[in-house]
Amino acid sequence: MTQSRTHNCGELRLADAGKTVTLAGWLENMREVGSNLAFVVLRDFYGTTQVVIESEEMMQAFKPINRESTISVTGVVRERTSKNPKQPTGEIEVVPESVSVLGRCRYNALPFEINRSKEADENQRLKYRYLDLRNPEVKKNIILRSNVVADLRRSMTERGFLEITTPILTSSSPEGARDYLVPARNHPGKFYALPQAPQQFKQLLMTSGFDRYFQIAPCFRDEDARADRSPGEFYQLDMEMAFATQDDVFAVLEDVLPPVFTKYGKYKAASAAPFRRISFRESMDRYGSDKPDLRIDLELTDAACLQDCGFEPFAGQTVKAVVVPDFHKTRKFIDKLCAEAEMLSGGKAYWFRLDENGELVGGISKFVAEKKDEVIEKLGLTKNSFVALAAGKYGAAVKTAGVLRKLLGAQVEGHMDAERYEFCWIVDFPMYEIGEESGELEFCHNPFSMPQGGLEALERAHRGEIDPLTINAYQYDLVCNGVELSSGAVRNHDPEIMIRAFELVGLGEADVKAKFPAMYNAFCYGAPPHAGIAPGVDRMVMLLAGEDSIREVIPFPMNKNAQDLMMDAPSAVDPKQLADVHIAIVEDK
């Protein structure tokens, strides 16, 4: 072992009985059961060992030591009379001959119980993250993360990918999220940006003649937190391949990921290659989401037959239904379901039932009554069917129906095979969309993607022969259990196609050259066709660990407000530091 210990706290077994050993770790607990008898739990990275105090001398040596102090104990191993089969070291105990304090805990009270830290307030956990990480249940997620990253790295290397690191200080790039800016001391008024992704650099590597690139890449985006998104910083398995098609990228990940999920996942069943491929439009129509959870067997149904049923919110709108057969939940359940769907989607949810007598009851049933036979036929209803409904413009209707599908799948028994990892590819994303805020034509996903139909499709859009919104791109997402693991694309490597693609969103050749000078110029020197993707490491480990929050698998995460409570970041800085980088703070009036 090391100078300060002969064994770790998870190592000793019955075969070690009689040995004199030295252990080092944290004093987790001390339970006194008599004047000269106490049981101490000693914990380190590897596990716990019971230390039994049986003398007044040792009792006096241990009593002044606060819990969570680091100590060194030397003693003799012996067989336990009361064994603990749930503990790896449960057949032995150590009778101490000496104890020394290596690092004293100076506080009698802890912010939370170490072994129950996951029950504590999250901000307390993050402020004292170094204590939170002492909890074996928390620590195991970080160990899992390390093992997964090591396996991913080895697997990519075995497949001929070179690990190449790309710059952290770079230029600002319009990639869909806000940049973190870094002032340049030697260039007053100018800023570096932390990379939202190594997108341009990995494409430049392809133009440089590197055939297969990857890295476990840090990415920085000034975004709000979600359960599956950490604010500020995240990591992804970034990869790119030269002379590659969409199918080539799919083949690599379908080879790399299933063994990792099978080996490390909480659930041992994972999709085998090839993963199912679903077009963006089909995914929205059938599942109400571009990241469908395929463990749920429910689907959206077109309920256009209800547009003229006399219910005003349905008139002239897209109406989508989610039908649940053999439904026996209460009205209280239904009301809660509709309220939750409305909160999550922003859209109103409606419902009715076909009861055991074949009668329409509840919700909006009175509006459906006159079309009963048609509705039963079109929606495929059987007795005791429940019908959840959403209506509005297409996007709003499918979004609300998709939320209803997800809630019903998770809350109604028999409609979700929860203990498995179900992968799929979402393909054929639209190249363009109308921006919610701008109302103008914008790139839907990655602006560097190759449009399907190439230059000809873009020229037809410029001539007004086709609507730009009908142009699809060679863009794809990898989805697992309703979580988007990554986005990728076949890249636009032709400068002429790139310019025409940007012109449709109002950016001309001069703009492209100014915003992406390196990439544009590099492509002018003969770039190979290339494609790539970047699965999120944090989300991957979250799924493998079966955690609901991504912060549980990040060693030192920020809170929901993008604050590091442990390091007090962001924080004010000295005025001289601001002067050095030519920045003045202007107070918000």
UniProtKB/TrEMBL annotation:
Family membership: Belongs to the class-II aminoacyl-tRNA synthetase family. Type 1 subfamily.
Keyword Protein biosynthesis (UniProt): yes
Residue span, Aminoacyl-transfer RNA synthetases class-II family profile domain: 144-555
UniProt keyword list: Aminoacyl-tRNA synthetase, ATP-binding, Cytoplasm, Ligase, Nucleotide-binding, Protein biosynthesis
Subunit description: Homodimer.
GO molecular function list: aspartate-tRNA ligase activity
Annotated positions binding L-aspartate: E175, R221, H445, R491
InterPro entries: Aa-tRNA-synt_II (IPR004364), aa-tRNA-synth_II (IPR006195), aa-tRNA-synth_II/BPL/LPL (IPR045864), Asp-tRNA-ligase_1 (IPR004524), Asp-tRNA-ligase_1_N (IPR047089), Asp/Asn-tRNA-synth_IIb (IPR002312), AspRS_core (IPR047090), GAD-like_sf (IPR004115)
Enzyme Commission code(s) on record: 6.1.1.12
Region (Aspartate) residue spans: 199-202
Top class in the EC scheme: ligase
Function noted in UniProt: Catalyzes the attachment of L-aspartate to tRNA(Asp) in a two-step reaction: L-aspartate is first activated by ATP to form Asp-AMP and then transferred to the acceptor end of tRNA(Asp).
A Pfam family of this chain: tRNA-synt_2
Protein name: Aspartate--tRNA ligase
Annotated residues for binding of ATP: R221, D222, E223, E484, G536, V537, D538, R539
Catalytic activity as recorded in UniProt: tRNA(Asp) + L-aspartate + ATP = L-aspartyl-tRNA(Asp) + AMP + diphosphate
Gene3D superfamilies per record: Bira Bifunctional Protein, Domain 2, GAD-like domain, Nucleic acid-binding proteins
Subcellular location: Cytoplasm
NCBIfam families: aspS_bact, PRK00476.1
Originating organism: Faecousia intestinalis
